[in-house]
Write a structure and sequence with these properties.
Blueprint (H helix, E strand, L loop, with lengths): L2 E6 L5 H10 L7 E8 L2 E8 L2 H10 L6 E7 L14 E2 L3 E9 L2 H10 L10 H13 L4 H8 L5 E9 L6 E6 L4 E4 L5 E4 L2 H4 L5 E4 L5 E5 L2 E5 L5 E2 L4 E2 L15 H7 L1 H12 E2 L4 E2 L14 E6 L1 H18 L3 E5 H7 L7 E7 L5 H12 L3 E6 L5 H5 L2 E4 L12 H20 L5 H12 L1 H9 L2 H11 L4 E6 L3 H16 L2 E6 L17 E4 L6 H13 L5
Parallel strand pairs: 18-19, 18-20, 20-21, 21-22, 23-24, 23-25
Antiparallel strand pairs: 1-4, 1-10, 2-3, 2-4, 5-6, 6-7, 7-8, 8-12, 9-10, 9-11, 11-15, 12-13, 13-14, 16-17
Helix pairs in contact: 3-4, 4-5, 8-13, 8-15, 9-13, 9-17, 10-11, 13-14
The chain binds fructose -6-phosphate.
């Protein structure tokens, strides 16, 4: 994910722009850049690779100017070179962009025909030239943005800086988050998340989807998609409280893995009355649970796998039919949805575009929406009928870890609550399940003590080129999640499989070279899983 920052400052902003980009490093990036106005003229510095390369360049060629924008880029259109790094600029403006402009080819062809010269392989450059074309026709920057935004297709957040406009920044949001920050002495900020702005201010406004904003020192003027002036409330964020360093850990991911006992306990305490051993949801269900006819779950990546585990729980404990799909498929499937149906959307950020589009589809088709989200101010949280918070705290590491276990915690509590409300679970069954949930933080702490042994194993697995993960029942989605984590973090090819599917094809892959990781807790399908293990060991597989 890319990161955006913009500052309308009182003094030079280059250093603060780079500092803010450092707080966005957790999102992952492969190049970075900033642009400022020096005596009314646009000036840029960009570098491939890590921010230290940009800092070195700025030491050699410093940038002055009290207004500027910055960006960390994760390459999508065009290789991660300095030339493709943001900001992209013309003689009139510089722009940084998160997301994808889907119709950039069409725009580029049109603008080339009008004499614009494109010098990068990015989709973003089309935005720079589109707005420039309008300015060349005599429009002000604000008018030029207003007529250009409706021409852009896709999901994006933008920040624009204009030549000769020392008191102006414009931001726009469609599908990708963007926030405005309010600083001391009229300083104003733009950021792709609250963390980017946390060192400057704890007072922010999130743009609603489709909004754009005109920033001047001391003022923010919000417009909606129809270009009407709109009021957007200021919020106090918690982000500064989480401006945490990595402590004694080498990475945020390691730290977050170790936070799991604490954040899962915190999340449980929000959903469970420990004194009575019952689930106590922190909100009213916006539907009659007894009348529910079906549940649709949708999410992306790790959040989807949390939903897939929960499918087993909702079917078993609440006797609900569950339909689950990844949001990028669901949103285009035009699936018929049940009358009196419920959709659960699971998302750490609460901003994932496909998940949000699925939510909107389901809402338009009469479903009640429960959003299981980690960011309470996010769009998915706000657009759900009920936001069920995961209390994981900010997840800085690029891979979802503690958010996943907190999602499972909330989904388990919801499954028990629905089971009880639908009369499937009696009081004794509820108490038994709640007792099992209450020991989870302690078990997580025990599991983390295995780290040294796991590290030894990791060194052996690190030599593999492929790894197979197997599981049955709720361990099947866990196998999928394990394979995703290995791919994402180690760049080792991995596949997750339902253990019972092994004999239907993938068994052909098994030999002495292929490590097979089996998730096999003591559960009703353990014996079945053990027979699958025998198939693996008969072919010499390393289990
Ligand atoms: C994997 C990972 C991603 C996210 C996915 C959904 O480690 O982090 O697969 O789980 O992009 O993101 P959210 O939960 O923010 O909707």
């Amino acid at each position: 994910m890319c990161g955006i920052v913009g500052i309308l400052g009182q003094g030079p902003v280059a250093g603060s722009l780079v500092d803010a980009l450092k707080r966005l490093e957790y999102r992952g990036y492969d190049s970075a850049g900033i642009a400022t106005l020096e005596n009314g003229k646009l000036a840029r510095r960009r570098a491939e690779g890590k921010l230290r390369n940009l800092e070195a360049l700025l030491r050699e060629q410093p940038l002055n100017g009290s207004v500027g924008i910055g960006h960390t880029r994760w390459a999508t259109h065009g290789r991660p070179t300095e030339n493709n790094a943001h900001p992209h600029a013309t003689d009139k403006l510089a722009v940084v962009h998160n997301g994808i402009i889907e119709n950039f080819r069409e725009l580029r062809d049109e603008l080339i025909a009008k004499g614009h010269e494109f010098v990068t392989q990015t989709d973003t450059e089309a935005v720079a030239h589109l707005v420039t074309e309008a300015i060349n026709h005599g429009l002000s920057p604000e008018q030029a943005v207003a007529i250009s935004l409706p021409r852009l297709k896709g999901a994006f957040a933008l920040a624009l800086l204009f030549a000769g406009e020392d008191n102006l920044l414009i931001g726009a949001r469609r599908g990708a988050p963007l926030a405005v920050g309010y600083g001391e002495g009229g300083e104003m900020y733009l950021g792709s998340d609250a963390l980017a702005l946390a060192a400057f201010t704890d007072t922010i406004t999130y743009l609603e989807d489709g909004d754009w904003v005109i920033l001047r020192r001391g003022s923010a003027e919000f417009r909606n998609e129809a270009n009407e002036p709109v009021f957007r409330a200021k919020l106090k964020t918690q982000a500064s409280a989480f401006l945490v360093d990595k402590g004694n850990y080498r990475h945020f991911m390691a730290k977050e893995i170790h936070e799991q006992p604490e954040v899962v306990a915190r999340t449980l305490a929000h959903y469970i009355d420990f004194s009575t051993g019952t689930v106590r949801l922190p909100f009213e269900l916006p539907f009659d649970a007894k009348k529910l006819t079906g549940l649709t779950v949708t999410a992306c990546g790790t959040a989807y796998y949390a939903g897939l585990v929960a499918k087993y729980w909702f079917e078993r404990f609440a006797r609900l039919r569950v339909e689950i799909d990844v949001a990028s498929e669901f949103r285009y499937r035009e699936a018929p949805l049940p009358d009196e149906g419920l959709m659960i959307v699971v998302s750490q950020s609460g901003e994932t575009a496909d998940s949000l589009a699925s939510l909107r589809y389901a809402k338009a088709h009469g479903q009640k929406i429960v959003g299981v989200v980690n960011v309470p101010t996010s769009t998915i949280a706000r657009e759900s009928d009920v936001a069920a918070p995961t209390l994981a705290g900010p997840e800085i590491g690029v891979a979802s870890t503690k958010a996943f276990t907190c999602q499972l915690t909330v989904l388990a509590a919801l499954a028990v609550a629905l089971g009880r409300a639908r009369g499937v679970l009696d009081a004794a069954s509820e108490q038994r399940l709640v007792n099992e949930l209450m020991v989870v933080p302690g078990l997580l702490a025990e599991a983390l003590k295995l780290e040294t042994g796991i590290e030894v194993l990791a060194h052996q697995l690190g030599k593999a080129t492929d790894v197979l993960y197997l599981g049955r029942g709720t361990s099947y989605p866990l196998a999928l999640e394990g394979a995703l984590k290995l791919k994402e973090i180690s760049y080792i090819h991995a596949e997750g499989y339902a253990a019972g599917e092994l004999k239907h094809g993938p068994i052909a892959l098994i030999d002495e070279q292929l490590p097979v990781i089996v998730i096999a807790p003591t559960d009703p399908v353990l014996e079945k899983t053990v027979s699958n293990l025998q198939e693996v060991s008969a072919r010499g597989g390393r289990i």
